[in-house]
Design goal:
The protein has 163 residues and is α+β, with helices and mostly antiparallel strands. It has a domain at 10-113: Gcn5-related N-acetyltransferase (GNAT) (Aminopeptidase), CATH 3.40.630. Helices cover 26% and strands 36% of the residues. It is built from 4 helices and 7 strands. It has helices at 20-30, 37-43, 90-104, 119-127, and strands at residues 10-14, 49-56, 60-70, 73-81, 109-115, 131-140, 145-153. It has a 7-stranded mixed sheet with strand order 1-2-3-4-5-7-6, with helices on both faces. A hairpin with a 2-residue loop joins strand 3 (60-70) and strand 4 (73-81). The model is unreliable at 157-163 (pLDDT under 50).
Length: 163
């Protein structure tokens, strides 16, 4: 289930160096063990990493996503939307676009970890076909909590459309 139309006033584009400080602000609001500025900056030119920002025409960057791509598999490492914009479908739209990028890169599967208590995010992922394939015990700190490992099959690589 993916929608193609962007929410009003929102665009998705690759992250650039001048976006990093804002992305770190969002990261810090969203996660108890946030990545630092040098982590994002170091990923900007790294092959196999898709760094995407969700930009609102009036409010600037309101979300972002990080997708690792290795051969035919990916990991949706981080997805976040600013608190004031949550619950409006932006996170759902962003996940859909990341999966579109994954398909375009020929990925067959995408994995992610989600806090066991984060039912809202888990529902979004499940709506896109993610299913639980494992659990990482005590994966998260502050508070200590298990991570559910979710995976979605994207089908064949680009060009493997079949008859």
């Amino acid at each position: 289930m993916t929608e193609t139309a962007a929410p009003a006033g929102v665009t998705l584009r690759p992250m650039i160096r001048s976006d990093v400080a804002r992305v770190v602000e969002i990261e810090t609001e969203a996660f108890t063990s946030p990545w630092q500025e040098d982590t994002f900056a170091g990923l900007l030119d790294r092959p196999g990493v898709e760094l995407l920002v969700l930009e609102h025409e009036a409010d600037g960057i309101v979300g972002y996503a990080v997708l690792w791509c290795v051969v035919d598999q990916g990991e949706l490492a981080n997805v976040a939307v600013v608190p004031g914009r949550r619950g409006r479908g932006l996170g759902r739209w962003l996940v859909g676009r990341v999966l579109d990028v994954a398909r375009a890169r020929g990925l067959r599967r995408v994995y992610l970890e989600v806090r066991s208590s984060n039912e809202r995010a888990a529902r979004i992922y499940e709506d896109f076909g993610f299913r639980e394939v494992g659990v990482r015990r005590d994966y998260y700190d502050q508070p200590r909590e298990d991570a559910r490992i979710l995976m979605v099959e994207l089908g064949g690589a680009v060009g493997d459309r079949g008859p």
